[in-house]
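Researcher: I'd like a structural prediction for the single chain below. Treat it as a standalone chain; there are no partners to consider.
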Amino acid sequence: MKLQDKFPYDSAIWGLENLYTTVGVDSFYINNSCVIAKNHTITTGHSYMLVHHLENGQITTQLVRLVDVYNDNVNINLVLCDKIKDDSISIQLNVRDRNNYCPWQLIDINFFRDEIDRLMIKMYCNC
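Model: Treating it as a single chain, here is the predicted structure.
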């Protein structure tokens, strides 16, 4: 399933500003620290870890599958599915607000594992 951006002309502008653009038919480039993935690109159908930073300092995690991404002229909306509870989750991201605190982060588990391996090798080699 691929939702239509509500204002497709904004997608072109956001792409020129290096904020958000579609990549092929099922991937999305989102240049924001809330999205931790190789080249800031996420793909529908893939699994990710959704990390919520709660106001009391606690952190919760959910294993999710990316269903779709679309913009509504103000926010980028991510539609996710909790892989354990099979619940639908919708989160928003205002990419134009660069000082925006991320109450959540979407992490590509494979990219995260590769980054940890890279850092461990770097520490071991002392380089």
